Amino acid sequence: MPDSPLLTAAAIAVIVLAAVAAVGVGLMVVRSFRDLGTDAERATYKTLHAASRAGAQLRAGLQPASAAKASKQLRLLLGCDALAITDLDTVLAWDGIAEELKPQLMALAAPVFADGRTALLTASPSLKAVIAPIRTNNRVAGCVAAFAPHAGAGLVRATGELAGWVATQVELAELDASRTLLMEAEVRALRAQISPHFIYNSLNAIASFINTDPARARELVVEFADFTRYSFRRHGDFTTLAEELRSIDRYLLLERARFGERVQVSLQIAPEVLSTVIPFLSLQPLVENAVRHGLEAKEGPGHITIRAYDSGADAEVTVEDDGVGMDPEHLRSVLAGHADGEHVGLRNVDARLRQVYGDEYGLVIETAPGEGTLITLRVPKSQPGHDA
After folding, report:
1. Long-range CB contacts (within 8 A, 24+) of 183-187
2. What count of Cα atoms within 13 Å lies in the side-chain half-sphere of residue 374?
3. 70-90 pLDDT, tens per residue?
């Protein structure tokens, strides 16, 4: 056919263009790989990535599971043939070759535990061991041991630095544990602040109805039992807003049995925030403050308004009373821990909110003598890891 040469030329041209495009794409791939950085930059990235992964594991402390996961990343950092992590009693993790040396490690590490200095020892005819102490809070808590056929000054120094980094992660884990214990202690303190004064007055109020209104007395006994059961026996550091409001309702029912019409309460609760997770016993002290320090000293009836509503990413709760109010300067001193006073419950709640969510979530209190008190509490609506 007469056009065959033309078709052949066109086909060849298409093939050439495709080849040129392929070469162009290849060059772009090579160039993009080079854009990832120099060898030194890539090595830095790998080092930081391994340290980050190991650090996340060690935040659980010197435990077998966390040490085992971290040891793989730490051995990559040192580039040694084997790496072990111990506490003072046992080998927690071993990664790499020569696991037959594991039973000997605690004996090899004994001098390091005793004097707290890095040691270079012969572990076997073919392996040297660099053993560096993990020092936390001015004490030796364990060691990092690196094994290699040859151990020069570089490996000795790197192992010592690595042990210091591990110690920092362990101290952070201990700090997290201490913070948890502190929060638990503060919850126990808040439970203890359900004072004998309140219990005595509640029981007296119940007793006053036994002869005149037995059914009312039985109802109050049940409410008192439910309130104390929630306050003293509930496990966990978090609850829901709905559960806390139910407890507050029981508390106010008991107080109204004592004060009668002197205590008036209004609730304005948005249903969408009822499932919000809040620290356990974070609202009850605010309401108790309104009753004891706001209305009890006031002549005539007093009013408490409790509001809960959606505020963007947060749920916001306010407790307002029209009682006698407080001196703002004294309140600031109490919240800062600089002065003792009758508002320790507020200080504990404020401190717990700041510990859990950050300083921007502390209590906001507006008050003045004779002007009543408005307390605002905010918590994030989304709280991964906090189970009610």
Report:
1. 183/237, 183/279, 183/352, 183/355, 183/356, 184/237, 186/348, 186/351, 186/352, 187/237, 187/279, 187/280, 187/281, 187/352
2. 5
3. 888 888 888 899 999 999 999
How much is the pTM? 0.53
Backbone dihedral angles phi then psi of residue 289, each to the nearest 5 degrees? -60, -40
Q: What is the pLDDT of residue 111?
A: 94
| Structure confidence at residue 165 as a pLDDT band (50, 70, 90) | confident
Report which residue type is found at 88.
L
| Domain map (residue ranges) of the chain | 39-178, 193-380
* Separation between Cα atoms, residue 221 and residue 228, nearest integer Å: 11
Token pair, residue 127, equals 């392996």
Asked if 39-178 and 193-380 have one fold, the answer is no
Domain 193-380 coded CATH 3.40.50.1000: no
Token representation of residue 280:
């356990």
CATH 1.10.10.10 fits 39-178, yes or no: no
Task: Give helix 153-192 / helix 344-357 axis angle, nearest 10°.
Answer: 150
